[in-house]
Amino acid sequence: xxxxxxxxxxxxxxxxxIQAAEGAKAYELSKDPRYVLEHNIPIDVDYYLDHQxxxxxLRIFEPILQDARKELFRWDxxxxxxxxSPSNKSGxxxxxxxxxxxxxxxxxxGY
Length: 111
What we know:
Layout: E1 16-17, H1 26-29, E2 30-31, H2 33-38, H3 45-61, H4 68-72
Antiparallel strand pairs: 1-2
GO cellular component, one term: delta DNA polymerase complex
Protein name: DNA-directed DNA polymerase
GO molecular function, one term: DNA binding
């Protein structure tokens, strides 16, 4: 976004994947993390769960568990993704949401 701070050849460029319309190209989905935070752009939670978290966990647990996918990703409690609204909080704390949970089983109310 700022030509003076453009990356050079071989530089690592930080990015996050944001939510966008179906069928958007990968280069349209990747944005600078600082820009995303400053402009309250929601990240694509499903992308990170499906591509960044589930595949490495399956590689680790498939030799150990009989049906690793079923054991690790059975959403018994329900899958709930919260999109937070902009607030006065800064940095990563603007994505924190306070929720009540059962002290013994950690279940969230309503599930």
